[in-house]
Amino acid sequence: MLIRYKKNYEKIAMGLLSFMPTEKDLKNLQATMKQYEVEDSMQLFLWKEDDIVGIIGTSLLGEETVEIQHISVNPSHRYQGIGKNMIKALKEVFPGKQLQPNEHTASFFERCDFTDHDC
């Protein structure tokens, strides 16, 4: 289930985002979290099953496009379709909008969208 980020999820969100290659540095990670908290055009969502196991971050690009900035799944929960389910759930959160990856999420996004493999 996709849930919106709240400040009380900050530690788990930072932990999940730190799996992204661009967020390995603590200062970068803290700056990214701050952006999601203050920028109206950016939203962060968490994927909850029994526990929170994934995170996906978006940025609105105009009226019709949502760019996927970050997507990460806890390593012990990977290859179970969670990433794919997060993208499907985002399509429901942003009906009528086009989802588009950035350069850091493109290969994952394409694999989920265009093949039958679990991500």
Automatic annotation (TrEMBL):
Keywords: Acyltransferase, Transferase. SUPFAM superfamilies: Acyl-CoA N-acyltransferases (Nat). GO terms for molecular function: acyltransferase activity, transferring groups other than amino-acyl groups. It holds the Pfam family Acetyltransf_1. Residues 3-119 form the N-acetyltransferase domain. This is GNAT family N-acetyltransferase. It comes from Fredinandcohnia quinoae.
